[in-house]
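User: Fold this; tokens only.

Assistant: Input:
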Amino acid sequence: MAIEKITGIVTDVIKYSDKHNVITLFTRDQGRVSLLSSAGNSKSARMRNASLMPLSVISAEINFNPTRDLQFLGKFSREILWKDIYFNPVKSSIGIFLAEFLNSYLRQSPPDPRLWDFIIHAVNCLDRRKKGLANFHIAFLIDFLSFAGIRPDLSDWRDDAWFDMQGGSMTVFLPAHRNYLTPSQASVLPMLARMNLRTSSIFRFSASQRRELLSRLLQYYSLHFPGLSNLKSPAILSEVFNS
């Protein structure tokens, strides 16, 4: 058995049995890793579970046994202690969305230190921000486009052009498929291209506009990454930001 030190962010927790959970991590150096973790109702088990909530960042030494499908997560330490995400209901809802999105996207992801650094930066921004959270998840998805390799090419943008969502580019011709934005719908793209985590709070949208933006962004992602087509957490965000 080889002992390896890992540092990862929790993207999912699933009950495996009465005594164990499966913890999914995205690690900086090994990519996506699933580990078996002790669970239960004792005081120590509850404290352990509280330290393994989605978006928790932990470090551990793992005895990688090639004969086991799931490696066992023994002792671990909290690498970063988020101060507000789990106590602020708005941040908690955004966090649920980020974790679900990442867990679905990262299923086949190899190690990517730059992506890891961005994710930690984004969650840190969420934890520290005091106000202006309504567009945070939109900005996160926009920033993430570059890491996913599907950032739209708007170099040929014009006010009468269509946006081909499959090709990720503008066209003056109506695409031969249904995955496009009309010129009217595409008019918002140059503005969205200027949004990022730092500037997200200065953009103003109504609740219905925000829902439409999220829906279109997830549609675009799911065309290129089909596993992202059935996320459940956007419904939670709709409720939280329904004002």
